[in-house]
Each structure stands twice: as C-alpha cells, then as structure tokens.
Amino acid sequence: MPGVEWEGMFFEAKEQGKMISRRNFVKTSVLGSAAALASRSPLFGSTATGGDGKPAFRFGANYTPRKRWWFCWLDWDQRAIEDDLSGVASLGLDHIRIQVLWPLFQPGITTVSDRCLANLHSLLDAADHAGLDVEITVLDGWMSGLSYLPAWVMPVAIPEKEENWNIFTSRRVIEAEKLLFKKIAETVGTHKRFMGFDIGNELGVLMSINNPATPQQADAWATEILAYCEEIAPGKFHVNGADDSHWFADFGFTRRNLATVGSATVMHSYIFFTGVLERYKYNDPASLHLADYMIELGAAFQTDPHRKVWVEEIGVADGWMPEEYKPEFMEQTVRNIAATGKAWGITWWDTHDLDPAIKDFNTLEYSLGLLDVNNKPKPLGKKFAALAAELRRHPQEVLPRPTALVIPDAGLQTKSWPADWKFATPYMKLIDQGKTPQIVVESRAKDEAYLRSRGITELVGI
User: Fold this and answer.
1) How far apart are CA 426 and CA 437, in angstroms?
2) Helix intervals (H) in 52-210
3) Residues in CB range of 223: below 8 A, 6 or more apart
4) Burial tier of 256 (Cβ tally within 10 Å: 0-12, 13-18, 19+)
5) Upper half-sphere CA count for residue 37 (Cβ side, 13 Å)
6) What letter does residue 437 receive in the DSSP assignment?
7) How far out from the chain centre does Cα 293 lie?
8) How far is CA 51 from CA 91, 391, 394, 449, in A?
9) Which of 98, 246, 247, 446 is the most buried (most CB within 10 A)?
C-alpha cells in the first residue's frame, strides 16, 4: 500500500470493524520475490539459575542491525555489529535471535555463500564478546512484511520440467534446505554462543501466499527438518518460529505438532495481528493477557509436562496505543507471562529502530526497537532492562490456576486470517471474572491424573 500512512490504515480499519493482516503488507523483494552481563559464560539451557535456584527466566531481543538491516550480510561491518550488540548487552539481556536472509546465504540450489557463513561466525564472535547467546533463524523466507525466497525455489524457475518447487513438499527443495542447515552447523555448530536453529521465520505466511501445504504436509516437513537439526547440532535449542495463525486457525502446522516437536513451543504474540485491537482497547485485560493466553493454549497441547513455551516475538508499534502507555503495557504483559510458570523466556521485537534511510518497509517497522538508531535505550528499553534485572533477582510469583477452560482439540476456521477467537473469547471472559485459567483439550479433560498434575480442580466449557 505505497503512500498510505500506517496510522491512517489502522484507524480506518478499526472504523470498518476489520483488522489489517500482516499478509496485506506482502511485497516481493528484488532478491526473489545496566552494563553487559557480569558473566561471559553461555546462558543457554539450564546452566543459568535465578534467585530461587531454578533455571533463569530468559530475557532477549530479536536483533535488527542498525547499519543496512539484514542486507548487511553482503556488506559486513564488524565494528557496527559489535557496537549494536554492546548496546543490547547494556540492557542486561542474555540472548538475541537473528535472521538469515535465505537468498543471500543460498543463491543457488547447491550453492551456499562462504562470505555469508564467515560473517555469521563473526557475528557470533561479537555476541560472545557482548555476553549474548544466539538463536539462528534460517529459512527467511518471510520477514517484516517482505518475502525473501531464493529464485531457484520459484515455480517458474524451470517450467519445462513441470516440477513442484514448493518449499514444504518438494524433495529437491527440502534436500537443498538441509544443505544450508548443514553448512551453518559446520560453521558455528560448536560455537559456545550458538543456541540452536529456528527453522524459519513465520513460514505459515508463505503457506498462505505461494507455498500451500496441508496440515499433514506442514507437520511432516517441520518434523523432518527439526529432526535433521538435532542430527547435525545435537542437544541445541531447535524450534519452529511459527506465527500466530496456527494458534487461531486450523491451518498449516497443527497445534499438536508445534507443541510437541522441537525443543520448545514458540509463540509470536502481537495484539494487532491477532485481532485483539479489533475487539478490545489497548489497555483492556485481553490486551495485557494475550501472551499468557497463548502460553496456556500451547501448554494444553503439550505432552511433556516439563516442556516450556518461548514467547519468541512480542512487541508494540506506534499507533497501537499512546506512546506513554507502552512501558506499562510491557510491564504488565511481562509479569503475566512470567506468572504462568510455563515460559522459557521473552524475546522482544526488536533490538533497534529501523534506519529510516532503508526504504519500503511498512511504517510500523521503524519504531519497534528497545534502542534507537543511535544505539541509545528508549523508555521501553529501560523498562525491559529493569524488568530483566528485577525478575532475575526476585522471580515472579507463579499464580495458582485451579480453573481450566476446556476446548476442542480442533474446530477453528481453516483460513489463516482473520484470527478465529472461538477459544480466546471465553478465556478472556474468565480473566474478566478475576480468574487465572489454564486450558485443557477435550481429549484429556477426563484424565484425572493429568488434571491433578496440573493443579486443576474446576473445568469450564466454552
């Protein structure tokens, strides 16, 4: 929507009773459509503990380079990266999530860029100097409103062969994807700051655009790729960075697969894209409890009682709420997440405001940072730093949750958007009643041992 200001789009959509999906921002790129932490030792996994002796609740951010965004993989400036990560470390954070631009790293089906791999290793070296662990998101794919698919996966690449070049179902493409993971693992797999692989950023968006996959196909692909990640980088933190659509629709990756495959269950929790702001005000309980609702939803589908949920993306853009309320929104949301006792940690979107000299991203992308374009903490960054310091010293009290909402194992709409609130609305009604509910799927609602293990004594239907 070139030339249309974000705020105008937002309020116009509100008036029409609609929300704008991230899919409405799709464009195809020219590439193919506090001081630093006192301890410099890696904090991955359970090696770090909080004030109560339990594994530390993790605080991190999705890294956005100030210089050249992720196009910097081709025009590397190690000093700029080091400066950025020093700014992140000054907030007292312990990890970052980074993005690999797929067409830059793998310009050909059997070609992986040595330069990009070397730059990736240099980034992890800079992260080590700053005391930050690094999760590497690989098949991007899709990010920040733009599609970054390599030219060789496009359906028109070799039309005379009439081959299926779908990134989720084509065996040739899947083997090429594995090559990229293998090359990255060979480069940084033993680096002490390498946390693990996120197999791709919000890949469900690509399913809704130009790479359709049934739930069975999507699950099979994710299971295979995550198993391969474990094979080439055993014991690391491998996840599927799926967007919210799979939690608000029976679409793409199933909730069962997302909650049982990989090292953690991932949530991307935005009050805009999930449709919260269509239904509630920015400071209503539903807005402040979206993330913990999604955590409880993920936990309902998990079979491992010790598995954690990672709030891998959460943030707030200009136009969603008054600027002065953002720190309050952050604080209440973070405390609600921590109070579930089910979260591995929070990774805010994102580290830095986007340089306005880099054009053609949607307006909302430019002001999401914890730090500004000069690497200085913004009020939101200072609040996040304070919360991280406090909750490491004095972990948030985990609230008892004797009431559970019972939901069907399936039964949401099959369209990826708009979000189906069939499960979320009754949950928010319980929040309004002063309850702190869990969620149970119908198939386990009569398992008394299971309910006791979760401290559930009251079941409420939808």
Assistant:
1) 10
2) 78-89, 102-105, 114-130, 171-188, 204-209
3) 257, 261
4) middle
5) 25
6) -
7) 16
8) 19, 8, 6, 31
9) 247
Give CA–CA dist 82/79, Å, rounded: 5
Q: What share of the chain is helix, strand, coil (3-state, %, to 5)?
A: 40, 15, 45
CA proximity to 169, closest of 225, 218, 208: 218
Q: Report CA torsion sign: 355, 102, 345, 294.
A: positive
Instruction: Output the CA–CA distances (angstroms, integers) from residue 45 to 60, 83, 209, 263, 426, in the order listed.
Output: 14, 26, 35, 10, 35
Alpha helices in 143-267 (DSSP H): 171-188, 204-209, 215-232, 255-258
pLDDT digits (tens, 9 = 90+) for 78-133: 999 999 999 999 999 999 999 999 999 999 999 999 999 999 999 999 999 999 99
Q: Over the stretch 260-301, which tens digit does the pLDDT of each residue have? A: 999 999 999 999 999 999 999 999 999 999 999 999 999 999
Question: Considering the entire predicted model, what is its pTM?
Answer: 0.89
- The full set of domains in the chain, from first to last, is 6-399 (3.20.20.80)
Distant-in-sequence, close-in-space partners of 390: CB < 8 Å, separation ≥ 6: none
